[in-house]
C-alpha cells in the first residue's frame, strides 16, 4: 500500500469515528500522521481529482465519496464464518444503526415423487409436501429432480415455466425457513426502495452471494456466513455507507 492509499484509509477510518468533514490539521492529529499538513493537503487535492474526496465547504475540509467508501470496505471486510452472540447482535444492530437478518437455509430435499391414480403427483420433502396435476411429462421431469434441494427444485420449475409449482414451493420454503430480524428501524432509509420487501423477507439472500453489495446512493448490504446457536446461517446487514461495519462485526463475535 503506497502513501496515498494509506492516507485515504486513515481518512475514511477517521471519518467513520467522527462523522464530520476533516481538515488536514485534524486528520494529522486524529490519525497521528507523521507528515506535514501541507503534504496532507497535496494528497487531498490528488484524491479529490480521483473522485475519492470532495470538499465540504470553503474551509478546505473534506468528506469521503461513495468511491472512497467502496474502496475502503472492499479492503477492510472479510467474509469467513463468524460465530455470533444473540444478545450482542441485538444490541449492536441498534447501536450501530444496522438492520440485520439471520436466515437458516432450508436443507429439505425432494425425497420422492408419489403418483396418485394418475390424477396428481405428491412431492415429498419430508418436512412438507405439495401436489401438482399429473402428466407423464411432469412425472418424468420431477423424478429427475429427486435429491435436489427445495430451492433448486423451485428454481428449475420456474425456469421451465411450471409457475404454479414454483409458487407453491416458494410459500412452503418461506414458511419453513427460520428468520430472525433485529432493528427494523435500520431499514427506514430504504422504505421507497424496490428492494425493501426482498430485504425484509430475506429473499435477497437467494440471488446475492456473500460479500458486499452497494444499493441506493449511500447504502450497503453485507452478506456473511455465521454460526448462530450452533447452527450455520446467513447474516444480512443493511445500513449506511458510513456505519462502522468493522466495529459491528467485532462486537457481535462470540470470540471477542
From TrEMBL:
Domain of life: Bacteria
InterPro entries reported in the protein's UniProt record: HrcA (IPR002571), WH-like_DNA-bd_sf (IPR036388), WH_DNA-bd_sf (IPR036390)
GO biological process: negative regulation of DNA-templated transcription
Keywords: Repressor, Stress response, Transcription, Transcription regulation
GO terms for MF: DNA binding
SUPFAM superfamilies in the record: Winged helix' DNA-binding domain
Function: Negative regulator of class I heat shock genes (grpE-dnaK-dnaJ and groELS operons). Prevents heat-shock induction of these operons.
Family, similarity comment: Belongs to the HrcA family.
Protein name: Heat-inducible transcription repressor HrcA
Organism field: Helicobacter pylori Hp A-26
